[in-house]
Design goal:
Helix content of chain B: 25-40%
CATH architecture of chain A: Roll
Number of strands of chain A: 5
Largest sheet of chain A: 5 strands, mixed
Number of helices of chain B: 9
Helix content of chain A: 10-25%
Order of helices and strands of chain B: HEEEHEEHEHEHEHEHEHH
Order of helices and strands of chain A: EEHEEE
Oligomer: heterodimer
Number of domains of chain A: 1
Chain lengths: ~70, ~260
């Protein structure tokens, strides 16, 4: 197990997971979210190849209702 | 009327027939959001980008109610107070949605939500270099508007009054100056409270109006969305038709010849 942060909260996950498997485990549809890893955008096309490492900080975001502030 | 039926406005290479852009915040739920947007006739909707709730991934998502294939999503940076935050948010938005058209707003003050123009200019410059199409929320200063246009912003969107205030168009002179000097679409981005305010903005010659609170916080948001649609259309038609000159004294409408 390794410890990472997702949206600011600590999570323990299995070692050796790729980002697309992590999203699957979290039951998130990759087409509806965007991911930032250690402050860098992860292009959707590379989710399979990006391995999650100890102490990674992930931000997973999506669109919500919002307008003029 | 034929000249007005094909009256579209073009932003970032795409034609839109509705000149009303609506925000999707502050509604009771996604059903109400979807019905209000439908009723407004808007083709562009602004959306915010926020953290997913990873503890509850089954929560409904906006994209399930407003089809991004039917509506043009305009990701905005509401809530950002620095250029860096705004840039980071829009890079994520581009990755989430896959489109380049965005709304930039960098706020300077919690109380007035006035734009911080120095940060806004800085963010616009970076984003345009990264090939974003930037519609920009800004102050009503014509010099700032010109700077933003020169940087390459695809639409300039000055406030008509503070965000969420519903005070109506407080600055018709400044808005008009910006319209006259600009070669990109000008939209009033904040301040509209009711239908007549939207009509005033359009009669000034704006290319469009962006609003959220005026619809979402009306007693009947669906009814107000329709009112705004009609007001924007009416204001536009009045602008294109050219109003009569104002006169100091009366001028009878019925001919005087043949009076008994």
């Amino acid at each position: 197990m390794i410890e990472i942060k997702i949206n600011g909260d600590p999570h323990k996950i299995k070692n050796g997971l790729s980002l697309d498997i992590l999203l699957q485990n979290l039951k998130l549809d990759p087409s509806k979210v965007a991911v930032e890893r250690n402050l860098e955008i992860v292009p959707k096309t590379t989710y399979q190849n990006v391995m999650i490492l100890e102490n990674d900080r992930l931000e997973i975001v999506h669109f919500i209702g919002g307008g003029v502030s | 009327m034929t000249s007005q039926t094909n009256d579209t406005f073009n932003v970032a290479g795409k034609d839109f027939s509705s000149r009303l852009i609506v925000g999707t915040g502050k509604y009771k739920n996604f059903e109400e959001t979807a019905r209000a947007v439908e009723s407004s006739g808007a083709e562009i909707v602004t959306v915010a980008i926020r953290r997913v709730n990873v503890m509850d991934p089954k929560q409904p998502m906006l994209v399930d109610y407003l089809d991004p294939k039917k509506y043009t999503y305009l990701p905005n940076t509401a809530g950002c107070f620095t250029a860096d935050d705004a840039i980071r948010t829009l890079r994520l938005a581009r990755e989430a949605g896959g489109w380049n058209l965005v709304k930039l707003e960098v706020l300077g003050d919690q109380k007035t939500l006035y734009p911080d123009m120095i940060e806004t200019l800085h963010a616009a410059e970076v984003l345009i270099k990264e090939n974003f199409d930037v519609m920009v929320y800004c102050s009503d200063d014509p010099i700032m508007a010109k700077r933003l246009e020169d940087l390459g912003c695809c639409a300039i969107m000055p406030l008509g009054a503070p965000i969420g205030s519903g005070l109506g168009i407080q600055n018709p002179v400044q808005i008009r100056l910006i319209i006259e000097q600009s070669h990109v679409p000008i939209l009033v981005d904040a301040g509209v409270g009711t239908a007549s305010d939207a009509a005033v903005a359009m009669e000034l010659g704006c290319d469009g109006v962006l609003m959220n609170t005026a619809i979402a916080e009306a007693k009947d948001p669906i009814g107000m969305a329709r009112a705004m649609k009609l007001a924007v259309e009416a204001g536009r038609a009045a602008y294109l038709s050219g109003r009569m000159p104002k006169k100091l004294y009366a001028d009878p409408s019925s001919p005087l010849a043949g009076l008994m």
